[in-house]
Amino acid sequence: MPHTAAYKHYQPGESPARSPSRSEQTARALAQSEAMCRANGARLTRIRRNVLEVLYTCHKPLGAYELADLLSPGARRMAPITVYRALDFLIEQGLAHRLASQNAYIATIHGHGGETCAFLICEECGDVSEATSRDFADTVSGLVSQAGFRPRAKVLEITGRCAHCQGAGRH
Ligand SMILES: [Zn+2]
């Protein structure tokens, strides 16, 4: 069964902190991520955890500089190299993906490290949803192993217009 999960955007002025269910979701996702890292013998340090928390809270692809700004409001901006290092770690652990077409980073929904997924990126509203299925993952794995290729990331980026934006453009 294919499934998609949408990252919802916040409206201007809407604070993620105002929605308890959303912050509960973030807390749960962070706890899960922490446990996953521990199981892999890796440590989710404070900085890595903070970067991941911002990615979970924003639910949209963020550039490294945007992340640096969000991580250090008002204060001196966190060094981008620090953010990049934390992002490298999160990608390695399967907790985040780099979207090459956006030059931006996004948290994975289920923390399915190494699993194949497709990101559906709306060029109009910027919405990103994640889609995957067993068949899709098997097909990609088959193609990759046929070529004798060892993949580091199995992420497909599909750009276009989301269902909502297509509806909005109808007359
Ligand atoms: Zn859209």
What does this structure look like?
The chain has six helices and six strands, in the order βααααββββαβα. It has a four-stranded mixed sheet with strand order 1-5-4-6. It has a two-stranded antiparallel ribbon with strand order 2-3. The chain has one domain (3-168): Arc Repressor Mutant, subunit A, CATH 1.10.10. The chain has helices at 20-39, 46-58, 64-71, 80-92, 134-146, 163-168, and strands at residues 3-6, 96-99, 104-107, 117-122, 128-132, 155-160. Helix content is 43%, strand content 17%. Helix 2 (46-58) packs across helix 4. By secondary structure, it is α+β, with helices and mostly antiparallel strands. The protein is globular and about 45 Å long. The site of zinc ion has 8 residues, from helix 6.
Q: For the largest beta sheet, what order do the strands appear in spatially?
A: 1-5-4-6
Which class in CATH terms? Mainly Alpha
Q: If classified by CATH, what would the architecture be?
A: Orthogonal Bundle
CATH topology: Arc Repressor Mutant, subunit A
The assigned structural class equals alpha+beta
Number of domains: 1
Mean pLDDT over all positions: 83
List all distinct small molecules, including ions and cofactors, that are bound in this structure: zinc ion
Helix-strand pattern: EHHHHEEEEHEH
Radius of gyration from CA coordinates: 17 Å
For the termini, the CA-CA separation is: 33 Å
Shape: globular
Which consecutive residue ranges, at least 5 long each, have pLDDT under 50? 6-17
How would you name the oligomeric state of the polypeptide chains in this document? single chain
Question: How many helices does DSSP assign?
Answer: 6
- CATH homology group: Winged helix-like DNA-binding domain superfamily/Winged helix DNA-binding domain
Beta-strand content bin: 15-25%
Largest sheet: 4 strands, mixed
Organism: Microvirga aerophila
Family: Belongs to the Fur family.
Keywords: DNA-binding, Metal-binding, Repressor, Transcription, Transcription regulation, Zinc
Protein name: Transcriptional repressor
